[in-house]
## 1
Amino acid sequence: MRRLAGALIAAALVLPLGGCGGDEPAPAEQANAATEAKIESRRTEIELMVRNGKLPPIARELVGADGSMNLDFIDGPEYANDVVRTGPGGKTGKKLKWDLNQNGRIDRSERTITEQELYAATAG
C-alpha cells in the first residue's frame, strides 16, 4: 500500500510538468489526437468501400459515435449474429444481399448477411 501511495504522489508531481515549457503537446493530448485520427481513418476507409460498391451503405453503422467498431448495431437477440436488413439501421426490411467477397455475383452465403459477416468484410 505504501508503494502505491508513493507512486501516486510521484505521478501527481510529474504530470503537471508535462504541460510546462515547450510547444510539445501533453501526452494526453497526443493520445487524444492519435485516437481521433484512427477514428477518422476508420470512417474514411469504410466510406470509400461504400462509395466503391464493396460494402453496402449500412456498413457505416459499424463505426460507433466514439469511433469503436459496433458489432451489435442492430441490438437484437443474436448479438453480432443478427441478420442485417435493408431498412433504417439494418433492423427492418428485406434481408440484405451483397457481393461481400467481390467475385461479381451474390453467392448463397451472401443472401443472408449477419453483423459479424459485414464487419469481417470491412477488415478483409
## 2
Amino acid sequence: MLIACATHSIVAPPYDVLTDAPSAALAELFASSEPDALFQEAINRRMTGDSQGAIDRLAWLEQQGHGSSHVLYELALAHETQEDFSTAIAVYDLLLGRDTSQSVQQDAGFRRALALLGLGSPQLAVEQLLALPGGEVFNNTDRHTFDLGLGVAWMRSNKMGPGMELVLSTLEATADSNSIPWMRAMGWHALAFERLAQAEKIRVDRRPYRRAARNLRARASLIAEAERYLIEVVNLGEPTWILVGMRDLGDAFIHTYEELNNSPVPNRLNPEQSKIYRELMQERSQSVLAKGWKAYDQGLDIAGRFGLQNSRVGLELQSRRNAIPF
C-alpha cells in the first residue's frame, strides 16, 4: 500500500511500553499462553470493542521481546480505537524506526497520518501524506484511499476548495464500489462537517427580524445538506463516523435552538408584546431542540449496538442528550 517517509515531525514523546504494562496477575496469565494465540486474542478483543484488553496483551508481548511489526501495528491501532492518538503516533514512530520494510512503511505511515488528523494536527497530516510516493506505485484502491485522506486533511487545514474537490471526485469514483468503506465514510463526514461549520457562521440571533428569518432559512438549508451527507455515512455502516456525525448534527440543532432563544426582541414591541414574543420563540424552537435530542439518541443507539457507548464520542452523546430537558 502507501509508503511513508522515514522522517517524521515529533508530536509525541517516545513510546514507553511500561506505561501499558498489564497488572502482575494478567502478566502471569499471559505467560501461560502461546504468543501467537495471545496475539490473535488481542486482535479479536480490539475488533469487538475491548481496546484495553488488546493493549494489555500486545504491550506484554512487546515487553517480553515478542514485539514483531504486527504486534506494534496492532498496538497502535488499539490506541487509535481508544482515541489516544498521541500514544498511537508514538507507537507508529517506534514501528517505522524499527522496521524499514516497504510493507510496514506503507501501512504504518498512512495510519500515522490519520492519527495526526485525530490529534487535531491536519497540516502535519498533509505533510505526512505528501511525503508518500504517488503515481505508478498506486493501484486504484491505494489511489482512492490516499486521495480521501489528503482531501480531508486539506479541508481541515483550511484548503477547503482543493480538499472538497478531491473528496467529492473520489467519492464519485468509488460510488459503485464496496471497497474502503471506512475512508469513504470519513469523506462523507468531512463534507457534512463543512456544511455544519458554514451553518454555524450564519447567525440567527441578530436584528433586524427579517434578516434573522432569512438567515434561519439559510442555516436550515445547510444543515439539511449535511444530513444528506450523513445518510451516506449511515449507509456505509461505519459506527465510528456515524457516532461523530450524529454528535455534530445534534450540536448544530442545539446551537440553533440556543440562538433562537437568545435572539433580540424586535424594537417595535412593548414589554408585554416582548414577553409574548419570547414565549412564542421558545415554543417554536422546541422542534429544533427535539431534533437535537433525536440526533444524540440515534447516535447512542448505534453506539450500543457496537459496544461503543463508553467511547469518548459515546459518552459525549450521552452527556449531551441527558442535558436536554425532555
## 3
Amino acid sequence: MQLRKVIALSLGIGAIAAMSVVPSVAHNGPGACVVAAIGANVNNVHYGINGHPQQTKLQNRWGLYYPPSDPQASAHAMPGTGAGPLGIPNTVGDRYTWLLNGTCSNGTIGGGGNFSSSGTGIGFCGRSTGLGSGTISNPAGSHSYIVKWESAGSQLILTDTTNIGSVNAQPNPADSSDGSCTNGTAVKFLVDGVLVHN
C-alpha cells in the first residue's frame, strides 16, 4: 500500500513539473492560417531609387515586370544556374522587398489569428524565390516562422519546415490601380492559400 502511495505521489509531482515547463501561451504543434485575398506589397529595389529607366513609380514603390516585358531582362536572363530544393531552376531577376500582413480567415480555429511577415525576393512576376520571417499571433500564443519559397507561375511553394504550404500570388490586370506586370508597375499581389506553421 505504501508503494502505491509513493508511485502516485511521484507521478503527480512529475505531471506538475511537466506542466510547469510549458508556458500556458506556448505554441502547441501545427496550426493553420488561411490567407484569403490579402494584398502583398512589393518594392523593386534592384536599381535603387531610380528603378528601371522606363519604369514609373507607383504608390511610392517600384513594381515588378513579366520577363518578356522587362527592358533590362537581358542583364539577368532566366532561368539561373542550378536548382532549388524543389528542382525548380534558380531565379535571377530584380531584387525586391515584400510585406504581407493580415488576419487568418479561419479565425482561431485550428490556429488562425493574425500574421505579419516581410522579407526579400528575387525574380519577376510569375517566377521568383523569396526569404523572410513572420509571426502568427492567436489566443494560444505567438509563433515565429521563416518564410522561404520557390514559385512557378503564380503559385508560391513554401519550403521551410517552420512554415509549409502553398499560396497563390495573383498579378494585377493591366489596368489595375495597383500596377501591372506588363509595364513594371506591379506593386501589389493578391495572395490566397494556407500557411501551416509548425
